[in-house]
Design brief:
Helix content: 40-55%
Shape: globular
Number of helices: 7
Radius of gyration: 27 Å
CATH superfamily of the largest domain: lambda repressor-like DNA-binding domains
Number of domains: 3
Strand order of the largest sheet: 1-2
Distance between the termini: 92 Å
Order of helices and strands: EEHHHHHHH
Strand content: 5-15%
Length: 151
């Protein structure tokens, strides 16, 4: 039986192999697999995904509505929220701009953000009801009314 060196592996030439079981199979080379599990283990990705989901819920948007804002399907939004896919920075920027919030809201190290604020139930309820209003002009008027009460 004749052995041939090919890429540092010995391969038996099939025509000269006495038994088909002697034929060496090519070695499988496994590429680095950035699987869903490995992505989910990354704490920062999970934290950003959790904040992404929390902000979506604060503003009472569905996954489909968020997908429309950032230009992806609702299935992709599900993957972002589950931390199985990384959220592109441009998507965070588009969403922050659309919601009129700082992009820092998505990151754990910001000193003050929506997710960590201790907001009581009344404020959460009011915010949810405000975001269910279909007319953006009415939302803006109510928001400016509340802002004027602070001054």
């Amino acid at each position: 039986m004749k052995n041939v060196n090919y890429a540092k592996d010995e391969i038996l030439i099939p025509s000269e192999a006495a038994n088909q079981s002697e034929i060496a199979k090519p070695r499988e080379v496994k590429a680095k697999n950035f699987s869903d599990k490995k992505l989910a283990k990354n704490h920062n990705i999970k934290e950003i995904a959790n904040r992404f989901r929390s902000i979506r819920k604060i503003f009472c948007y569905s996954q489909e509505e968020i997908g429309n804002i950032i230009g992806v399907s609702y299935q992709q939004v599900q993957k972002y929220e589950a931390a199985t896919d990384r959220i592109p920075a441009v998507s965070l920027y588009q969403l922050a701009k659309s919601l009129e919030i700082s992009v820092n809201e998505f990151f754990p190290d910001s000193s003050k953000n929506l997710v960590n604020d201790a907001i009581d139930n009344e404020v959460w309820t009011m915010a949810r009801k405000l975001m269910t209003l279909k007319n953006p002009n009415i939302r803006k008027k109510i928001t400016s009314l509340v802002s004027s009460l602070q001054e």
